[in-house]
Design brief:
Metal-dep_hydrolase_composite, single chain, allantoinase activity, Amidohydrolase family protein, DHOase/Allantoinase_Hydrolase, 5-stranded antiparallel β-sheet, alpha/beta
Length: about 425
């Protein structure tokens, strides 16, 4: 075997073949071998995680980075640092909200410079607006965007405008020719209303599930005509799952992403006036949450293929810090395993945007790795700005490597999270 920089052993390594004891050998930022746990492997650095699991680093699709009042460079630095602590090794940054929105190569160049020193890998979505031209899309793709994003309403935030059916189909035809996917915020603007007051109850009434249904129907119609891979982000209204399934059954290339907060936080369990839980689409009822889980857990051709943080600092849920533990807390209760967790948060997302060298622990893949303790039980600090403050979660990121380089190691002691007290009455997801 060639010279090895690092070997990492765990009795729970998530590989494409399943979860098993293994040793992962890393050289020059790539995985050179996944072999027997006890095989002697000379290396400069040796790490034995024991029962702490080793997962492929998460690939977070459609995560915004810039909070209001922060510079773009600050946004990338802060979000990337949070990502490293959270086991996210690749940020696929949203085109908007951001200043400038990534709708042309000039704006992308600004983002590339701002993200140059980020602690994790950063890739970019290109934004499509009513004024985008075929040349804009081709130039963005040539400059390196891995996918595109559009909205049928206000889901993309300031800097972009919603697409009508003509422009949606026109854009899809261009993307089909480039063989690149389109992520769509699918709430239909015509089905939305101004909230009658503050709080989540008013937001729910103003943004009903039928807005997602109508938007889905528009996306499916355009994708069927153009042959484009469309990915709904985020998908929240479980009653629309049959629409997705029906489209997939007739060969339309449409799939969806949901977020941990839609899977973990029913509207009945959060304060109505909490800014930490305000998002678009809004959090829905517990019955919807359970129905979303039934869709996600379908074996075979499941329409929901990815779970991303939906991170929107300052303008929505700031959830990137807790994606893996929140999702694992809820998934474990439903009989899921670490392979499911990795598929939803890493492998499927990497595959969707053509990152075949990421999202899996296998030879010749990038050594983007996460040490995750699936049994650690801890309480999220009350002061945390995200939606899980005060909740008890199971599962904790202990270390993160990007291209074989350590970018996060949890310090000894509390490390920003407290072990959950025995008998804690705080609800977990």
């Amino acid at each position: 075997m060639p010279h090895i920089d690092t070997v990492i052993r765990s009795r729970r390594v998530v590989t494409p073949e399943g979860v098993a004891p293994a040793a992962v050998a890393v050289r020059a930022g790539r995985i050179t071998a996944v072999t027997a746990y006890d095989r002697p492997l000379p290396a400069r650095t040796r790490v034995d995680l024991g029962d702490t699991a080793l997962l492929p680093g998460a690939v977070d699709l459609d995560a915004a980075v810039q909070a209001p009042g922060r510079t773009l460079r600050e946004g990338y630095a802060e979000t990337a640092a949070a990502a490293a602590r959270a086991g996210v090794t690749t940020l696929v940054a949203a085109a908007a909200p951001a200043s400038p929105a990534v709708t042309d190569v000039a704006a992308l160049t600004v983002h590339l410079a701002a993200a140059a020193e980020a602690a994790v890998n950063v890739a970019f979505l290109g934004g499509i607006t009513a004024s985008s031209t075929p040349a804009d899309l081709a130039d963005l793709r040539a400059a390196g965007v891995v996918a595109f994003h559009c909205s049928l309403s206000d889901g993309a935030g300031a800097g972009t405008r919603p697409l009508d059916d003509h422009r949606l189909r026109k854009a899809m035809v261009e993307l089909a020719a480039m063989e690149v996917p389109l992520l769509v915020h699918a709430e239909d603007a015509a089905e939305l209303a101004a909230p009658a007051g503050p709080g989540n109850v008013a937001l729910l009434a103003a943004r009903p599930p039928r807005a997602e249904r109508r938007g889905l129907e528009r996306v499916i119609s355009a994708a069927r005509m153009a042959g484009t891979q469309a990915h709904i982000s985020p998908f929240t209204a479980a009653e629309c799952a049959a629409v997705l399934a029906g489209a997939r059954a007739i060969g339309v290339a449409v799939s969806a992403q949901t977020c941990p907060h839609y899977l973990c936080l029913p509207a009945e369990q959060v304060p109505d006036d909490s800014a930490s839980h305000a998002c678009r689409p809004p959090l829905r009822a517990g019955t919807n949450r359970e129905a979303l889980w039934r869709v996600l857990l379908e074996r075979g051709d499941c329409a929901i293929t990815t779970v991303g943080s939906g991170h929107r600092p300052g303008t929505g849920v700031a959830g990137i810090s807790w994606t893996l533990p929140a999702l694992w807390t809820a998934a474990r209760r439903r009989g899921c395993d670490l392979a499911d967790l990795s598929r939803w948060t890493s492998t499927a997302a990497a595959d969707l945007v053509g990152m075949r060298h990421k999202g899996r622990l296998a030879p010749d893949c990038d050594a983007d790795l996460v040490a995750f303790d699936p049994d650690a039980r801890h309480e999220v600090p009350q002061a945390d700005p995200g939606p899980y403050a005060g909740r008890v979660l199971t599962g904790r990121v202990e270390r993160t490597w990007v291209a074989g380089r350590p970018v996060f190691t949890r310090p000894a002691g509390p490390g920003g999270v407290r072990p959950a007290a025995e008998g804690s009455a705080v609800a977990a997801p």
